[in-house]
Design brief:
Elements: H1 3-11, H2 16-37, H3 40-47, H4 51-58, H5 61-72, H6 85-98, H7 100-110, H8 113-116, H9 118-146, H10 159-174, H11 180-195
Helix pairs in contact: 2-3, 2-5, 2-7, 3-4, 4-5, 5-9, 6-11
Length: 201
């Protein structure tokens, strides 16, 4: 049994509704106190549960935080398939924009821990980053199969960094979150021209 399967098996012992309550408690603690000050004890107290429940289901703080962040997301890039790469990228941008305000605040709350805590990095990559990278890979592969773009196009390497990065940096540069209109303009003006593609209709 893989670590992911083992985690899913443990999680099945509580109801989905209760899991959402626990995730909400995690995110509230994260927003209020940041990652470093977040504790399993604090989450248990806020969620009115035993600390052993959290350890039994998720084992460690990084795994619990990663699971809460994943459950918090709305929409999935894996479901995107418009028939063209331009359309897929614009739809991916809209999905990303739908969570930019909420997720950006939470990402900022993780602070330096994301860079210094290897266990947290690994948990976030498994729960959040790798599924998105796989979705981008599937979009590109479909486009290559349709003949829209060469599989080795040099700009493809930077797609995830472009779309994920602009979500994080706009609040820093302009004091505003990257909403759907902004993300669509970014794709049309920057991403698609770099790929040699026309904007989606």
């Amino acid at each position: 049994m893989t670590p992911t399967q083992a985690t899913a098996a443990r999680r099945s012992k509580i109801s989905p509704e209760r899991a959402q309550e626990l995730y909400a408690a995690v995110l509230d603690e994260l927003r209020e106190h940041g990652y470093e000050a977040l504790t399993m004890e604090g989450v248990a107290a806020r969620a009115c549960c035993g600390k052993s429940t959290l350890y039994r289901q998720w084992r460690t703080k990084p795994q619990l935080v990663a699971a809460a962040l994943r459950a918090h997301r709305r929409g999935t890039l894996a479901a995107v398939d418009t028939g063209t790469l331009a359309g897929d990228l614009r739809e991916a941008a809209r999905i990303a924009a739908g969570t930019s305000g909420r997720d950006t605040r939470l990402t900022q709350a993780l602070g330096l821990a994301v860079l210094s805590d290897e266990e947290l990095q690994a948990a976030l990559r498994e729960a959040l980053v790798e599924p998105e990278l796989a979705a981008f890979g599937a979009m590109v592969q479909r486009a290559a199969d349709r003949g829209e773009i060469a599989a080795g196009h040099p700009a493809l390497e930077f797609l995830p960094a472009q779309l994920m990065g602009v979500l994080r940096i706009r609040p820093v540069l302009e004091g505003r979150y990257a909403d759907a209109a902004y993300m669509e303009r970014f794709v049309d003006a920057s991403v698609l021209p770099a790929l040699g593609l026309a904007p989606a209709p």
